[in-house]
Amino acid sequence: MDTGLEDILGNPMQHATPSLAIFDLFSDKLIRRHYFPKSLLKEDSFFANVIIDADRGDCNNAFAYVPDLGGYQVIVYSFNEDKSWRVKHNFFHFDPLSGDYNIGGVNFQWTDGVFGMAVGKRLRDGTKPIYFHAFSSTKEFMVSNKILQNETYSQSPESYYDYKLMGDRGPNSQSSAEFYDPETGIIFYTQVNKDGIGCWNTARPLTQDTQGLVDSDSDALVFPNDLKVDTEGNLWVLSDRLPMFIFTSLDPVEYNYRILTGPISDIIKGTPCV
Fold first, then answer.
1. Is the Cβ–Cβ distance between 124 and 149 less than 8 Å?
2. Nearest 5°: CA angle at 242, between 8 and 237?
3. Residue pLDDT, tens place only, 12-69
4. How far apart are CA 174 and CA 165, in angstroms?
């Protein structure tokens, strides 16, 4: 049976034991709730994203990758084993030169680590590249899903060299979420300091010249926080003005939360991502 996976993640700052809830989206029934062992958590652990690595019709071998932006680690969950473990790496940390933000007229500094992750297309050897980046960083990295899925090896010193630097997005290109579109091979990612959405065609090396800004709007796209591509080739973006909520205040007469969408074929026109 094809099973959709959706997450409900507890925040360690609000709940004693954060958990991952897995639902069958066709029946709206809870399949399982997995509680993360407290030994995996750190004092500043914060889960703001979750990525599912699963193939249609093979849900027993599904994995979830949960970036911990405050603990600078990724928690891996195996559905088959109903078990979770943490993976640590230097690339999960923030860049101290990329922690300054200017969004919607608000200046602030964050030290958020690994946040955005995207599951790439299956390669000939059966593995998938997992792209990732820290929020307070402009660099993009990659590691094979088989490294993350191997609990023993992923925690060994030898695994350090399996992580690769893909490139640098350039100045002021800090990003929260990203998503890989299997139809085009393009990774779409938020551009929080630019009130926009960026793109990179993974068939080309990642440089400032091979990326594009598919849209930028100083009103509708203030703090784009999440995005996804649906099965019909549409990009969906959530913007929420979070910095204003945290550091100043939200104007109740304005639209502070938006869901925007557009066909990929249209929004990538004129960009290096085509």
1. no
2. 65
3. 444 467 899 999 889 999 999 999 999 999 999 999 899 999 998 898 999 999 999 9
4. 16
Inform me whether the pLDDT recorded for 140 exceeds 60: yes
CA distance 270 to 274: 8
DSSP H/E element including 78: strand 73-78
Indicate yes or no: pTM above 0.85: yes
CA dist., res. 189 & res. 177, Å (int)? 6
Q: What are phi and psi of 43, to 5 degrees?
A: -60, -35
d(CA 217, CA 205): 27
Contacts of 232 (CB under 8 A, 6+ apart): none
Give residues with Cβ within 8 angstroms of 32, minimum separation 6: 21, 22, 79, 82
Contacts of 105 (CB under 8 A, 6+ apart): none
What tokens appear for 37 in the block?
């062992």
Euclidean distance between CA atoms 239 and 220, whole angstroms: 7
Q: Residues, the chain, total?
A: 274
Q: What residues pair up with 132 in beta bridges, in sequence order?
A: 117, 141
